[in-house]
Amino acid sequence: MTLRAILVDLGGTLVDYFGHTTPGLVLPRSLTLAGQLLLSVGIRVPPLAVLEARWSRNAQSPDDPEVRPLEIRLRRTFEVDDSDSDLLPALCRSFMAPLFAQARTYEDTLPFLDVLRDLGIRAVVVSNTTWGSPAELWREQLSREGISSRIDGSVFCRDAGWRKPDPRIYAQALRAAGADPGDCLFIGDNPVWDVEGPNKAGIRGMLLDRRMEFMGQGFDRVTCLREAVEKFSSENYGDI
Questions:
Q1: Last residue of a domain, one of 101, 122, 153
Q2: Distance between CA atoms of 198 and 167, rounded to whole angstroms?
Q3: How many domains does the chain have?
Q4: Checking phi first, is residue 218 left (phi over 0); if not, alpha (psi -120 to 50) or beta?
Q5: DSSP strand E in the chain: where?
Q6: What is the pLDDT of residues 114-125, one digit of tens each?
Q7: What is the pLDDT of residues 38-69, one digit of tens each?
Q8: Nearest to 151 by CA among 106, 185, 181, 112
């Protein structure tokens, strides 16, 4: 069979957003920057400890696949009145700035995408967004990293309304790729989101294990994107 499309995860696969940190460590900077925006327009902002407590109270269960938009969580955290809804897009942008500022595109990412283009294989980014943040901010990020010009589309959880591993986001990704499940390969760094979820949707999943954390666990596994190209170029990708 012919491999027509690669569906590829973003964070931890194409771009390193957290390095040796975590969302919890970025959060204080994000809340602080968003608070500064509100202060600049005359809206009172409580101390950081209060904001962090409110943020925690509005946490979403990790088992809930439905997307909860960041705008809703920020409105509740900062107690922004509904009449101030025009502020929410700017508030999201300020909140996400610290995370985007520390982004680092992996050295093998752009060469990998260039190889796919040369081979005539469509590439579609399929990703959850941190904290349910808006898809348009992530598409801007793809452009800044030089990725958007090298792919054929992107599907974020905010587009689908559902987070990986819900099957509905994979279905939307297949439509974006214009391919059937058996003609696609999914590559990503999360065993559940990028291997088990796609497999259940009929898409073969390949685990990108950059830190070699999943050796000997039975995954179809590679440690870099160059190795992924070598593997799918030499194998016959039949049914899962």
A1: 101
A2: 8
A3: 2
A4: left
A5: 5-8, 15-16, 104-105, 122-127, 153-156, 184-188, 204-208, 221-222
A6: 999 999 999 999
A7: 999 999 999 999 999 999 998 888 889 999 99
A8: 112
